[in-house]
Amino acid sequence: MSKKNRSGVVYSTNPDFQYQADNMPDVDTLAPAQQNLKIWLVKLGGSKVVTAVREFIGTDADLADLGKQLKAACGTGGSVKDGEILIQGDHRDKVLTWLTGKGYKAKKAGG
Question: Per the confidence metrics, is the pTM higher than 0.90?
Answer without folding.
Answer: no
